[in-house]
Design goal:
It is a single chain. By secondary structure, this protein is of the alpha+beta class. It has a single domain, classed as Periplasmic binding protein-like II (D-Maltodextrin-Binding Protein, domain 2). Strands 1-3-2 form a three-stranded mixed β-sheet, covered by helices on one side. A hairpin with a 5-residue loop joins strand 2 and strand 3. The longest helix has 10 residues. It starts with 6 loop residues before the first strand and ends with a strand. It comes from Raoultella planticola. It is an enzyme of class 2 (transferase). Keywords: Glycosyltransferase, Transferase. This is ATP phosphoribosyltransferase.
Length: about 55
């Protein structure tokens, strides 16, 4: 269950915007492993949940 005190961000799981979204997260200093098959990933260094949505 997700905690309501965490920021939730949705990005495309694959497709045209996917790589740019991942790069933006990285440039913002958000460390997250999105290479797994899970639909939700937790940022390692911030209270952020990343949802990988299908196109």
């Amino acid at each position: 269950m997700l905690d309501n005190s965490r920021l939730r961000i949705a990005i495309q799981k694959s497709g045209r915007l996917s790589e740019d979204s991942r790069e933006l997260l990285s440039r913002c200093g958000i460390k997250v492993n999105l290479h797994t098959q899970r639909l939700i990933a937790l940022a390692e260094n911030m209270p952020i949940d990343i949802s990988a949505c299908p196109r």
